[in-house]
Amino acid sequence: MKVLITGGGGFLGSHLADGFLARGDEVYVLDIGSDQKNRHNLKNPKFHYVQNSVFDIEMLENLVRRCDLIYHLAAVVGVEHYVADPYHVLNVNVNGTQNVLRAAHRYDKKIVLASTSEVYGRNENVPFDEHDDRVLGSTAIDRWCYSTSKAVGEHFAFAYGRLGLPVVIVRYFNIYGPRLDALDVGRVISIFAGQLLSGKPITVVGDGQQTRCFTYITDAVKATMAAGLIDEAVGGIFNIGTDRETTILELAELFQGLRATGSRIEFVPQESIYGNSYEDVPRRVPKVNRMHEILGVKATTSLEDGMSKTLDWFELIRPAKVVEAGAEIGG
Ligand code: UDP
User: Fold this and answer.
1) CA-195 nearest atom, ligand 1
2) Pick the CATH number of 2-177+215-243+284-300 from 3.40.1350.10, 3.40.50.720, 1.10.10.10, 1.20.210.10
3) Quick one: 195 exposed, middle or buried, by C-beta within 10 A (0-12, 13-18, 19+)?
4) Which end of the chain is more exposed for a tag (fewer CB within 10 A), N or C?
5) Which residue is catalytic, options 28, 49, 82, 146?
6) Cα–Cα distance between 37 and 93 in angstroms, integer?
7) Which candidate, 240, 288, 233, places its Cα nearest to that of 111?
8) E strand or H helix at 31, and its extent?
9) How far is the CA of 285 from the centre of ligand 1 (A)?
10) β-strand 202-205 against 26-31: which pairing, if any?
11) Is the pTM here over 0.85, yes or no?
């Protein structure tokens, strides 16, 4: 089978490419970014990296036509973007997604659309069933543009579904693992990892009682592959994650226990990190029965195991420490 992964240059997409290559499939990645996260696959004749955008319609259609299954992961993700460049978020996540859906419809190719737990917004009724309400703040708060953009993508997918396109929606819950982000930036795990490895304070926002369900990448990839491969999944929405709920303070403490670098925990106000255009989500927990029963996948990696593997990877990619000349002498 030939699989197209838009956004396959990123964290999730590069692992998904590994998953399909391991099954013996041929993988085409379309991504505007670098091929760094796929560098281990670049010599594989079954792997193709196309550095281009979903706004290049001719090239997009070419790729869609030659593949059997499409995964649309290309999106602008990350809190810093929601706040700094909402236009970019909305344009790529809404118009780019429409381009991919249109091409998939034109060539009648099944498509799995990557969505997010952010679509539930600040709904307080956890755990979230796939059909639960979306509770969002004002459109004047830029933070909600990402959630909205992904929900519009889902609506588009269902609209194309009505026109006969086989679509599947997967909503990810805080997926983490090796290749996540650069140290110190992006999501809480890469920020905490950077702080821990350099012995700096671990910055817990607010009182740290907000929760997330951190899901290890290999579990997420198994479920994502099943979403594209199992016929019964077509037309459905699937929460992808674990239902083990962890407070951010617990996460910080778990990190502290992984390496004795002297990092202490520092509580910081939300505004100091995100400015005023941001609202944190207090709890985020999925119902995972559909993932278990229809996709046949359970997230089995423990937080301790997953975090330990992730930190090992961060340590590996960390720029080597500069040893001052003479530092070793006389000891
Ligand atoms: N967070 C934190 N310290 C940081 C960065 C993030 O305590 O230095 C918190 C943040 O406020 C949120 C949680 O970690 O409650 C998860 O943030 P992330 O940006 O990873 O993703 P989200 O789940 O909010 O999309």
Assistant:
1) 8
2) 3.40.50.720
3) buried
4) C
5) 146
6) 22
7) 233
8) strand 26-31
9) 15
10) unpaired
11) yes
Residue pair 240/170 in contact (Cβ under 8 Å)? The answer is yes
Higher pLDDT, 203 or 317: 203
- Could you tell me whether strands 2-6 and 265-268 are parallel, antiparallel, or unpaired per DSSP bridges? unpaired
- Select from 150, 248, 267, 268 the residue to mutate for testing ligand 1; criterion: most ligand atoms less than 8 Å from CB: 248
- DSSP-derived letter for residue 186 is S
Contact 57, 31 (CB under 8 A): no
Which residue minimizes the CA distance to atom 21 of ligand 1?
187
**219 within 8 A of 282, measured Cβ to Cβ:** no
Tell which one of 128, 142, 185, 188 to mutate to probe ligand 1, the residue whose CB is within 8 A of the most ligand atoms.
188
Q: Locate the ligand 1 atom nearest the alpha carbon of residue 274 and give its number.
A: 11
Q: Where are the domains of the chain?
A: 2-177+215-243+284-300
Ligand 1 neighbour 116 (Cβ under 6 A): no
Other beta carbons within 10 Å of 92: 22
Asked whether 122 lines ligand 1 (CB < 6 A), one says no
Q: Which residue lies with its CA nearest to atom 12 of ligand 1?
A: 280
Q: Give the mean pLDDT of 127-145.
A: 94
Residue nearest atom 19 of ligand 1, based on CA coordinates: 187
Residue 146 annotated in active site:
yes
- How many CB atoms neighbour CB 14 within 10 A? 26
Structure tokens at 163: 């026109």
Mean pLDDT of 216-220: 98
Q: Is 285 in the pocket of ligand 1 (CB under 6 A)?
A: no
For residue 51, the cross-strand partners are 31
Among 167-181, 266-280, 317-331, the minimum mean pLDDT is found in: 317-331
Is a pLDDT exceeding 60 seen at residue 129? yes
Whether 191 is in the pocket of ligand 1, judged by its Cβ within 6 Å, is yes
Any atom of ligand 1 within 6 Å of the Cβ of 210: yes
